[in-house]
Known about the structure:
The protein is mainly α. 72% of the residues lie in helices and 0% in strands.
Amino acid sequence: MRMIGMTINVVRTEGYLALYRGLSASLCRQMTYSLSRFAIYDIVRNKLSRRNKGLMPFYEKVLLGVFGGFAGGFIGTPADLVNVRMQNDIKLPVELRRNYAHALDGLFRVCKEEGIKKLFSGATMASSRGALVTVGQLSCYDQSKQLVLATGYMTDNILTHFLASVFAGGCATILCQPLDVIKTRLMNSKGEYGGVLHCLTETAKLGPKAFYK
Length: 213
């Protein structure tokens, strides 16, 4: 209900298009982050499968997911930072809003006003999250589909893909939510956190539920 109430409030006060604030940054993030991790995972998996003339064991899928996700997370960090800031602007007082016009404007202004290094603020969390979400989404998806097909009760059809996707989505959410909270706090910070560990300890003081907000 909190999410529905917030949505209604945004539409009433800012208009329907406010729901898409940060769309350009979100698209930019997907074109860097998701493109990288999906491409790395898929290309390497296919090559290894052909070389081994068989399906990869689960531990290799996990390792590949970690590698692809970590690389994608790092590559997508600048766009992710701008995306978080653009979506968070609505929560801030007018005088504190950054008001980026679009993703490229945000990237340029961060470089100009805060330095290139700031573009990679939260890169550790973003890369770690990328590794975990890729394990959840791709490694667990591949493995769950393989196990479902191995039962012999189902064929490679839309229901099999649906069941594997539900399982993979659940794994990815459970694995990544705590890191999402830390990453968002770091990217929105104005210097109040000394680093990842400091942010982690400050969030932990709020209780375990703080990591699953």
